[in-house]
Amino acid sequence: MKRTVNEATIKSFHYPCFDALETHVMTIVTTCKLAKQLRALR
Question: How far apart are CA 30 and CA 13, in angstroms?
Answer without folding.
Answer: 19
